[in-house]
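Why show two proteins at once? Because comparison is the fastest way to build intuition. When a single record is shown, students tend to memorize it. When two are placed side by side, the eye starts asking what differs. So, the first record is below.
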Amino acid sequence: LKSALETLDRRANEDQKYEVLSCCAHEFSDKRIAQLRAIYERTGDIDAVLKHMNEDPDWYEKPTRKGNVIYVGKVPYDAKGYEKAKTDAEKKMCYCHCMLVRRHLEEHIPPTFCYCGTGWYRQYWEGILGKRVKIEVLKSLLKGDEKCELAIHLDL
């Protein structure tokens, strides 16, 4: 995987890498997308969708919006382990939702791999809005950050 990503980094621009990898993410629930799309279709208001997300106890991330950009910070995959962790390495192992990253964090996987994780958000925001979105990785463990943050650009 590391070698394939390094090759992709040498041969593709950022948009191409995003297109290739953001299509690899786990599938988001069609039922949840339909529920959120119904809110958007009924109200025509992205803020109504965000309000629903923020009020839903099963929605563990609380996205915020500034203009045409929605910001989301990932929550730890293993919140209890993250709280109990004694070292930065232990915290990172409990933080990332990707099993490949968690198991191989010390192998310096290229940050390009995080575009795979952006696909999770791409699926549901494109499903809600019925149009393309672009997701930018602001912070990630693979970039050396302590947490992951994304910006979902809605103005394409």
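Second record. Ask yourself what differs from the first in the token line.
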Amino acid sequence: MTGPQDAARLRRDIGYVGAAFLVLNSVIGAGIFALPGKVAASAGLFSPWLFLIVGVLFLSVVLTFTELTSYYDRTGGPILYATDAFGPTVGFATGWLIFLARMTAFAANANVMAAYLASLWDPLGTELARAAIITLVTVGLTWVNILGVKDGVRTLGVLTFLKVIPLLLLVLLGLQHVSGATLIPGGNFHVEDLGGTTLLLIYAYVGFETIGVTAGETRAARSTVPSALIRTMLLTAALYFLIVLVFVAVIPANEYAGATLVDLGRALAGPVGALVITLAAVFSIGGNLAGSILAAPRLLFALAERRMIPQPLARIHDRYATPYRAILVMGTMALVAGLSSGFVELAIGSSVVRLIGYIICIGALPVIRRKADAETREQALRLPGGYAIPLLAFFVCAWLVAQSTADDWMRVSVLLAIGIALFVIEKWYYGRHQSGGNRSE
């Protein structure tokens, strides 16, 4: 589906490799460095297979988004899907909620990065040092992305290398400890608190929707984005399976609950291994932060360009061709959230927000299929099995949302109310401006 003015102003500087980096860094963040122990405490030796099973089920959501991305070469992603299917109000709500999910996740991960750095050097453990780290990281990444999308992608490339190589080395060192009984454990498949454990585990797979947001800056977006999305997610699921398999093979069962990948690195290679994995965690979180600051402002840009929030946020920098005002707002909001005491609660609520956005986008697919012109429909990817995959994706997301609490819904309501206020203000201002213009004519 062809798009308006942003295609003529934003530079298509993201190629296939850059798109893959964006997916990888949006998905692999702080989660995999802490989740294996928490999941293993509930699922034991079956936890690698639980990661894989959930990944396969969640693949239905990824595949649905893969088809959705093949219809568009514009900036906006979920905003476009929801708007074209259900109108501007639903499109706004979807874009705003996913933006908040990304922004609060950035704030949370910036704090986790500060904690990992503090474990390397005691003076970094003070409150002042924590604030300084969060500020430097946020301001630095904000500035890099204002300078141009190429610089943002280069940053992602460096951070991808620095975090993936140590994880692959961890797997290679640990595979020698994997036995047949570890790979295929006996007994019944049992998971304590299946709902809560799955909701926790799914955090390792979310964030992939970011790739659709940057389609307006991606070369040959309708083919590049779907291909990069599905291949990167399949490789990520395989990497998760191997990491957790090594984890349960090396770490004693009575230590699962409190162990992280840093403990796995220490068990395999002593203090050097622990240091390497700690640094990998820092780079992994850095890559996730870089992916967020690259993609999330484009959501604000797309909302502003469609007059769903104040239009000045759609301004493109004359020299750097980036949505610099949206980037500045994203960076400022993330910095305030990261330095404040209440951001953790917002981050918890944002996970539910993201799943709601997924459900809306999944529901949009049948409408988008029907409304697409003949040329777009012919070029777009078409999932096999009719609506079987999107239907499975809908039920997976709905079941996960059902695992949330009343407190989570309260936080979602507050976040949505803030966005609705901006939406109403912009519509009122635009309507008044238009009315004034008509009277003057």
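One difference worth noting in the second protein: The CA atoms of residues 69 and 176 lie 40 Å apart.
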